[in-house]
């Protein structure tokens, strides 16, 4: 895969301090609305920390911190959902539009051997859909589910990366 990664973007193991930064990132109401499929209460720090402790303790999951110019700007992870390996990512809204999600996901995919990989995004989350497309994912289906971040059912695309 050709990497068009931005200079200054790197991935590293997730630390406890990173998880606290992730918590702050996911409290942004506009980001929560765009992501749609989030926790029921983005301000519930205890629930967030428990969820991340579970992720980090899961030997079948892989999570990495996205760092840009020395600053924690988000994360990318692979976990199992509906019996299939799925990737997810979150970039702090302050850094949207800089190519950091694409760069972080490209770097992650270089070290993630599992294929196929799946991803999901709300049909109106054009930025995330573009990131996935740039990284080689293609739409293979649609689904509708209740999105806590919007308080309603939301259509989403299911995407797959085969190569």
UniProtKB/TrEMBL annotation:
<feature type="domain" description="N-acetyltransferase">
    <location>
        <begin position="9"/>
        <end position="163"/>
    </location>
</feature>
<dbReference type="Pfam" id="PF13302">
    <property type="entry name" value="Acetyltransf_3"/>
</dbReference>
<dbReference type="GO" id="GO:0016747">
    <property type="term" value="F:acyltransferase activity, transferring groups other than amino-acyl groups"/>
</dbReference>
<dbReference type="InterPro" id="IPR000182">
    <property type="entry name" value="GNAT_dom"/>
</dbReference>
<dbReference type="InterPro" id="IPR016181">
    <property type="entry name" value="Acyl_CoA_acyltransferase"/>
</dbReference>
<protein>
    <submittedName>
        <fullName>RimJ/RimL family protein N-acetyltransferase</fullName>
    </submittedName>
</protein>
<keyword id="KW-0808">Transferase</keyword>
